[in-house]
Amino acid sequence: MNPRWIVTALLVLLLAGVCVQLGRWQLHRLDERKSRNEVTRSNLAAPPAPVAEIVGPDRVVGQQHDWRTVVVTGRYDAAKQVVIRYRNISDRPGFEIVTPLMLTDGTAILVDRGFLPRQGGELAPTSVPAVPSGEVTVTGRLRRSEQGGHTSGGVPVDGTARLINGPDFSKALDLSLYDGYVTVDRQEPAADSAFDGFPGPEIDDGPHFFYALQWFFFALMAIGGLFYFSRRDVQEDKVAEAGGSEPAELVSTDHSID
Questions:
Q1: Quick one: pLDDT at residue 258?
Q2: CA quadruple 202, 203, 205, 208: dihedral positive or negative?
Q3: Strand partners, 136
Q4: Is the model's pLDDT at 251 over the cut of 60?
Q5: For the chain, N or C: smaller number of CB within 10 Å?
Q6: HSE of 245 in the Cβ direction (CA atoms, 13 Å)?
Q7: What is the 8-class DSSP label of residue 194?
Q8: pLDDT single digits (tens) 118-153
């Protein structure tokens, strides 16, 4: 029990405590993911319904609405179309084309019309399929507005953006938009064949359980290492003390003359 070992023990215990808390945090994220998966399964199985009936008057797509199938009818506003950059589907880079759909009540909702794979090293799609003229009926999946932390990727600049965010688009495009968007499953008139569709959601538990086990294992390693090295130091001290206390060997000198 000396200051060096006391400080070391406190630091190791602190480290072990942090690892335990990180493990508990991963288990908490696992519970959240399981709850979200249940909502997603329920929404995927639900029949299509008008968007106003599902979202409500606040027009905010929340987690409880994610992946719900909706039906919206209106007219595309091609003049306010936005190209979404840096997209990737099935390891293919490309672009998504988002166009506001003007509804009969004067509001609008963003519609992600589809994915265009990138051709070579192009920084923008060389050709974007035109929107259908006249009234369009879209059946698709509701998605929440994408969040980018403190980045401004949701604000369209020169007709392009990195994120699909209803409130940011609403300010930039001067439209009364839903907070969220719709990905197209079916469209009448039919969508252009140049568009690729979107994959469904990933419904699994993710890596959170195994991450939690790793953090708990690190905590055990820290405590085990403290015990091992402290025990070794004690044993070395005992050996050193035992060696120093042994009486010096007496050396006899015989000066007798035979």
A1: 46
A2: positive
A3: 74
A4: no
A5: C
A6: 6
A7: T
A8: 988 788 888 899 999 899 999 999 999 998 755 557
SS (H, E, C) 84-106: EEEEEECCEEEEEEEEEEECCCC
Question: How many whole angstroms separate alpha carbon 112 and alpha carbon 53?
Answer: 20
Does this model's pTM top 0.85?
A: no
Q: Which two three-digit tokens encode residue 146?
A: 């994408």
Q: Are 167 and 155 contacting, i.e. CB atoms less than 8 angstroms apart?
A: no
Q: Which residues neighbour 37 within 8 Å (Cβ) at sequence distance 6 or greater?
A: 203, 204, 205
Structure tokens belonging to residue 4: 């060096």
The DSSP symbol for 160 reads E
- Using one digit for the tens of pLDDT, what is the confidence trace for 203-214? 878 899 999 999
Please identify which residue in the block is written with the tokens 């994220």: 29
Q: What pLDDT, in 10s, does the model give residues 57-87?
A: 899 999 999 999 999 999 999 999 999 999 9
Question: What number of other Cβ atoms are within 10 A of residue 179's Cβ?
Answer: 20
| DSSP H or E run through 120 | none
DSSP string, 124-141: S-S--PPPPSS-EEEEEE
Structural contact between residues 208 and 29, judged by C-beta atoms closer than 8 angstroms: yes
